[in-house]
Amino acid sequence: MADNNLAVQYRKNFTDPSIVIGTITVALAMITSFLPNIYLYFAYGVFPDWEHLLTAWGNIVVMCGAFYIVEPVSYFPIFGLTGTYIGILSGNISQIRLPAAATAQDVLGAPAGTEKGEIVGILGICGSVVTNILFLTVAVIGGEVILRLLPTSVTNAMSKFILPSLFGACFTTMAVKKMSITLYALPLALFLRYIAVPAWLCIIICIFGVLGITYTLYKAKIIR
Q1: Which of 25, 79, 85, 208 is deepest in the core (most CB within 10 A)?
Q2: For the whole model, what pTM was predicted?
């Protein structure tokens, strides 16, 4: 009964206000993203014809449409509702926000999918946003100068290996929590890439495929 009361209070005092604020801020971000286009139209009369506009939109949907479903579903267990709003608004979800949230939860022993895990994950995301802004400010001001001073071998290594390293570290952080799932999740991903399945389809198959396999094995009492 006490746990139920705490869950009700958590939703009333934190989740529900987060939904209101998150809906407003995401809607504002969507609207303001069109301000440059609106300015160009009213100031200079520049506007693409509908044929080109719909063609460009269709190309984007083909390339990125699957991520509209895949990303919220795959990140929600770690981010929670509020963290998802923040992650979508701040960007760099898989590269920065996800590792930050997962690491914070792991260090503090706050399981993902719980109220405690959600709070810890949010704090990790917010910390990464502040840090990201500080480093971006430095990078924008002096990044080009710093990169010019570095050897070509270093800049090439950074461009090739930073992102795979982040994904590898994130995968390892999750894998050690449930090694039995790794035994079929990793081979599935490697097999799909080996047969050259498109990246967006590979992500969908990996996420929902692993979910389906894990659910089946759990119901069969093969894994716990």
Answers
A1: 79
A2: 0.64
